[in-house]
Write a structure and sequence with these properties.
This protein has eight helices and seven strands. Helix 1 links the parallel strand 1 (about 1-10) and strand 2 (about 50-55). Helix content is about 40%, strand content about 20%. Helix 1 (about 25-45) packs across helix 4. It has helices spanning about 25-45, 60-65, 80-85, 110-120, 150-160, 175, 180-190, 195-200, and strands at about 1-10, 50-55, 70-75, 95-100, 125, 135-140, 165-170. The chain has a seven-stranded mixed beta sheet with strand order 3-2-1-4-6-5-7, sandwiched between helices. The chain has a single domain, classed as Spore Coat Polysaccharide Biosynthesis Protein SpsA, Chain A, CATH 3.90.550.10. With about 200 residues, the protein is an alpha/beta fold. The chain is globular and about 45 Å long.
């Protein structure tokens, strides 16, 4: 078994990312900020104990993965849940796994290290976004069912209870705040993370 953890970051494409921000950002601005978000998440998790994959079939993201020196997982399945389920077949080769959304602006190396350590001590870690989504799910058990989409947090919890998995909810802003809509963007601009301030310096 590989002693590392595997980290998957699912991203559909860069053609029209973060569409709910279209009222406050142009398409080019949204593409740029999505790339920088991915870059920050990769940078936060990158160390010798993590093997990082972008989960996508998009050519632009394949190029970005190459630039960031991470792997690309090209699924043969359609839809986010099916792509992550296919990706989960790799879990048994690792000590632990993390599925992390690509729109978490406040993630830092410090908090990535904390969550990586917590994975070692729990069957499942799970975070809840303001719209009841699941921005992060991680664990050491070979979970092979994912229920991303509307009300995904409740669906995941129901499934975990049904299967009698022991889970711990994560409440840190770094794993619960998604840059998803105009209200989020307003809060984000009021509390800019370091990586974003550097871009605009």
């Amino acid at each position: 078994m590989n002693r590392k953890k595997i980290i998957g970051i699912p991203i559909k494409n860069l053609e029209d990312p973060m569409s709910r921000l279209s009222e406050v950002l142009t398409k080019d601005e949204r593409v740029n900020i999505q790339k920088e978000l991915i870059h920050n998440i990769v940078k936060s998790f990158k160390n010798n104990d993590h093997e990082i994959y972008l989960i996508s079939t998009n050519k632009e993201l394949e190029i970005l993965a190459d630039i960031l020196n991470v792997k690309i997982f090209k699924s043969n399945s359609a839809g986010l849940n099916n792509e992550v389920i296919e990706f989960s077949k790799l879990f048994s080769n690792y000590d632990g796994w993390i599925i992390c959304h690509a729109d978490l602006p406040y993630l830092t190396k410090h908090f990535a290290n904390i969550i990586s350590t917590e994975v070692n001590e729990n069957e499942i870690l799970i975070a809840k976004s303001k719209d009841n989504g699941t921005p992060l799910i991680a664990g050491t058990v070979n979970l092979n069912k994912f229920l991303f989409g509307k009300n995904s947090f409740n669906k995941h919890i129901e499934y975990l209870r049904e299967k009698k998995y022991v889970y711990k909810q994560i409440f840190s802003t770094e794993f619960t705040f998604e840059l998803d809509d105009a209200d989020d963007y307003k809060k984000f601009i009021q509390n800019q993370p370091r990586w974003f301030r550097k871009l605009n310096a």
